[in-house]
Amino acid sequence: MSRFEEKTLHSKTIFEGRVIRVQLDTVELPNGNTSTRELVMHSGAVAVMAINSENRMVFVRQYRKPLEREILEIPAGKLEPGEDPDDCARREMEEETGYQAATLKKVSSFYTSPGFADEILYLYEGTGLTEGEARPDEDEFVERVELTLEEAFWAMEAGEICDAKTVAALYWWKSKVLEGK
Predict the structure, then answer these.
(1) Tens digits of residue pLDDT in 3-60
(2) In the CATH scheme, what is the code of domain 45-179?
(3) Residue in 68, 138, 157, 179 annotated catalytic
């Protein structure tokens, strides 16, 4: 046991939906006191930085209800239970953009908000793109947008790109350009 570990004394699911489960845990703190933790449990997700032959990154514009507005994001989606992240990345990129990648490489993985959620996101780079037809889910309305690195940073400065996975992807792309790769 680490010196900061919180021992779970009681856990109660308070909501279970299609995307998340919310639970309330009572924990014993390292100093012996108790506290509660509100936790969001999620099966994980993937995101793809797809770079086309013209050195433009592929984004999708979509409405995000929690923000009550449209934003630009890299293609991404939720892992189905037991689904391999590589397979999910290929599926999501094709569904949302129509593109297939000849090369799909896992770049990193990270927890999106570990203070209250266990969602892990697997970040991929997709290259050697072949264009096809997008097949978004029936409740998904997206528009494919392709931007240069400079245009993408302008979009970020304008607040059109504002989610963590896409901001991380832009800085990763910028570091690759600066390295000459």
Answers:
(1) 999 999 999 999 999 999 999 999 999 999 999 999 999 999 999 999 999 999 999 9
(2) 3.90.79.10
(3) 138
